[in-house]
UniProtKB/TrEMBL annotation:
Compositionally biased residues, Basic and acidic residues: 409-420, 429-440, 454-466
Keyword annotations of the record: Acyltransferase, Metal-binding, Phosphoprotein, Transferase, Zinc, Zinc-finger
Enzymatic class: transferase
Protein name, as recorded: TRIM56
RING-type domain: residues covered: 20-67
């Protein structure tokens, strides 16, 4: 009660609370909306009329302040009367009056009603009126008011505002005030309500007694609302930051594209003409096909209209014989039209023209054969007949007129219409030297496509594939990555509720400061970090050695591999969230067996020999299994007390990422005892927002954690002290993490890279920058020669979602 009371004892009320946000003037006849915002009745009426004038039968409007949907209090009433139906905000009116009477020029209320302006000197609490000296004498002489408590205006200014705030009037009984509270109905009532409507209620108290009980709840509710306000601000700031990053990256890519054009301008002129001619040819050929379909459909429209006219005229003016002949002929023609329409509908395909720059542009040397390549994408249009058509009407043996070639490209991102959920994806590659020997292959797959483009309705776009910046370019990116925005659905970052969180500005290296994430607790940078690491040995690029398909014939859908491990005998274990399975593959990457679990597994680690530990987040436990030749035997269960995600094991200890309050990394023994919880520093600042994956060195001195929300990498000692925390601009959304000796490898899900660090947090560079898309989990082989990478993202093509890739570290 004390803190709440202290806030209202201060008579200075914020102007914004007593000001209409529409007219920015003090409230006049304020009315309240369900979202708790108040506006002048006249302002609200104008807003309602302006927002509903385009609606045919308006039934709702949006709040002018928070844009929340507000239903009409009575849809049968015209919009200009809706504001009258919302309840007046008596509290704001009383508060305005309380502030007003504390001014030096408060006028006498009785005199004001006589149009006389006299300064008041007294205040009657019972009547709620200011009185001048003359009216004070009259007030004291009246029988009904002679015992009223009068205070001077000077004394009144020192009292809390609530001492002068009057109770709201009862909406049901004129002349009575709301002074009682019915706990049975959770309703504030007047004395008449108590005696009439609530006479049988057992728990009716005065509002003063009821309010006394509410103060504790009010304090906790206020704190919760403040946290929700901060949470909203964090989300908004995060989006503003993302918008700035998007703008920066867009400008950078735009500059990169134009600089490439400027640097090799002379050569581009020649090749540009060539490829534009090819583009013109592709467009003309496809346009011709579209025109043929349009011409056919126009003919069918004419035929059907003529048939309709024939039936109508024969029935209206013809003989019985004419009717029979006309209907018989029209039936035959209708069947023919239906067959043609069904066949056309089946063969409808949209052509997408994509453009990717030729990789030889990177070198800018003689021998550049082509500016790039044109690829076309065909997708079945999900257009259904307007009525039920017999299945036999559709032709199932129609031939494709185009040469179909499925292009298996690991770094390709296609832009499709958002509504094409299930379609056949065909890539038609037009190259000068392969015009006469194109391969005919069909590859069907289901893929959800998302497009970030301003011209979705055209379903046609030119997409430029990024090339490594030229040596003389001032904006070298250092890796091949798509310049065009990848087709990814808008990712809503599930920022964790901040009830246990604190925020402070981010500290990043000078070169990264411009693109640091939104406000988060400060980063602890490694002592040796330098914005210009010229003296570091850049690791050599790992090479793709092989890949294998993790999806088996038993799987009904595409897989989602969030966890992987290589056990001591070389076998590979995969955690498949989609099918709730753990799978085992031999050293030749052949599927050996699997086990369906009780919940979706997230991560897995080897705990010695053929034993593994699997995290089950929804069940808040770790399950231990022995991996046999073709199946798994459960040997133990360990309860974690919180949703558990990434897991690591060393020296007979588990390190488990837990999304608890606060988020933490728990150190547990193999028999399930909780040895230590790492969550906060000595000052009470949280180490994590959402610890995702974890790795430990062999002696468990260092624990490395990636954070899903902070998008950072942390190093914590076994004693729970943070050594460093970094974010790296070329490592976007760090996910999987692995340690081998003094080397730390981190997967950048959104940068499509795997980056190498040392245990001191120094970033050595990319070891994988090509051949992977959205890397999720990484595992280093026990011999240190290979690294395994899983991939997952909703927009990945099917073959990539199910693909597990093995890279050779080239004696890093």
């Amino acid at each position: 009660m004390s803190s709440i009371a202290a806030e209202v004892i201060d008579p200075d009320v914020a102007d914004t609370f007593l000001t209409c946000s529409v007219c920015e003037e003090p409230f006049k006849n304020p009315v309240g909306l369900p979202c708790l915002h108040s506006f002048c009745k006249e302002c609200l009426t104008k807003h309602i009329l302006s927002t509903t004038k385009a609606q045919k039968n308006p039934k709702a409007f949006t709040c002018p302040k928070c844009k929340r949907h507000v239903d009409s209090p009575d849809p049968h009433q015209p919009p200009h009367s809706w504001a009258d139906l919302f309840p007046p905000n008596h509290f704001v009116l009383s508060l305005m009056e309380g502030v007003k009477i504390r001014s030096d020029s408060q006028k006498c209320d009785p005199c004001s009603r006589r149009n006389e302006k006299v300064i008041a000197i007294r205040w009657c609490k019972e009547c709620g009126e200011a009185l001048c000296q003359q009216c004070e004498g009259f007030h004291r002489s009246m029988k009904y008011s002679q015992h009223h408590h009068l205070v001077s205006m000077e004394e009144l200014k020192t009292q809390p505002i609530k001492n002068t705030v009057s109770r709201p009037p009862c909406p049901d009984h004129e002349g009575t005030l709301l002074g009682f509270f019915c706990e049975d109905h959770n309703q504030v009532v007047c004395s008449s309500c108590v005696t009439i409507d609530h006479r049988k209620c057992k728990h009716v108290t005065t509002t003063a007694e009821a309010a006394e009980k509410q103060y504790v709840d009010a304090e906790s509710l206020s704190e919760k609302l403040k946290l929700q306000r901060d949470w909203s601000r964090r989300i908004a700031e995060n989006r503003r930051h993302s918008a700035r990053v998007l703008e920066d990256s867009t400008n950078q890519i735009r500059h990169q594209i134009t600089s490439i054009r400027q640097q090799i301008n002379d050569l581009l002129v020649q090749k540009e003409v060539k490829i534009l001619e090819e583009l013109k040819t592709v467009h003309a050929d496809e346009k011709e096909q579209y025109d043929k379909v349009i011409e056919t459909c126009d003919g069918l429209v004419s035929t059907t209209e003529n048939a309709i006219a024939l039936i109508q005229n024969s029935m209206r003016h013809g003989s019985d014989t004419d009717v029979i002949l006309a209907i018989d002929n029209v039936k035959n023609e209708s069947q023919s039209c239906e067959s043609k329409l069904a066949d056309l509908t089946t063969r409808l395909k949209d052509l997408f023209i994509n453009f990717s720059a030729d990789s030889t542009l990177q070198a800018v040397v003689n021998g550049l054969d082509n500016l790039g390549r044109l690829t076309t994408t065909q997708a079945n249009v999900n257009l259904t007949a307007p009525y039920n058509v017999e299945p036999m009407t559709y032709r199932s043996d129609h031939t494709h007129r185009d040469h179909i070639h499925h292009e298996h490209t690991h770094r390709e991102h296609d832009h499709h219409d958002r509504t094409h959920r299930d379609h056949i994806h065909h890539e038609h590659t037009h190259r000068e030297h392969d015009h006469h020997d194109r391969t005919h292959r069909d590859h069907s797959h289901h893929e959800t496509r998302h497009t970030h483009t301003h011209r979705d309705d055209k379903r046609r776009e030119i997409e430029i594939e990024s090339v490594r910046s030229l040596p003389l370019s001032p904006i070298s990116t250092g890796r091949k990555s798509p310049v065009a925005m990848p087709p990814a659905a808008t990712q809503r970052k599930a920022l964790t509720p901040p009830y246990e969180l604190t925020s402070s500005p981010v500290v990043t290296p000078r070169k990264l400061r411009k693109r640091s994430p939104s406000p988060l607790p400060p980063l602890m940078l490694p002592k040796s970090i330098s914005p210009f690491p010229y003296n570091r040995i850049i690791p050599r690029q790992a090479t793709l050695e092989t890949f294998f398909k993790g999806r088996t014939s038993n799987d009904r859908e595409n897989c989602c591999f969030t966890g992987a491990e290589i056990i001591q005998d070389g076998r590979i274990i995969l955690c498949d969230q989609t099918h709730r399975k753990v799978k085992v593959f031999n050293h030749n990457y052949q599927w050996c067996g699997e086990k369906v679990l009780s919940a979706k597994p997230y991560d897995v680690c080897c705990i010695g020999g053929s034993d593994i530990a699997v995290t089950l987040p929804t069940e808040k436990k770790i399950q231990l299994y022995t991996v046999r030749d073709s199946d798994f035997i459960c040997i133990a269960n360990i309860q974690t007390g919180a949703k558990c995600w990434g897991i690591a094991y060393a020296q007979k200890k588990f390190a488990v990422c837990c999304f608890s309050a606060p988020p933490s990394v728990k150190i547990m023994s193999r028999d399930g005892r909780e040895l230590k919880t790492i969550a906060r520093d000595m000052a009470g600042n949280d180490y994590f927002n959402f610890p995702d994956y974890v790795a430990m060195d062999k002696n468990t001195r260092n624990i490395f954690v990636t954070d899903r929300y902070r998008k950072s990498i942390s190093c914590i000692t076994a004693l729970g002290e943070k050594r460093w925390e970094i974010r790296y601009d070329n490592l976007k959304v760090p996910r999987g993490i692995a340690v081998y000796g003094s080397k730390v490898f981190v997967a950048g899900c959104r940068s499509h890279t795997v980056v190498q660090l040392n245990i001191d947090g120094d970033i050595l560079g990319d070891i994988i920058s090509e051949g992977i898309s959205y890397p999720t989990k990484i595992v280093v082989h026990p011999n240190g020669e290979n690294i395994l990478v899983t991939q997952h993202q909703a927009t990945l093509i099917d073959v990539e979602k199910n693909m597990v890739k093995i890279f050779s570290l080239n004696n890093q």
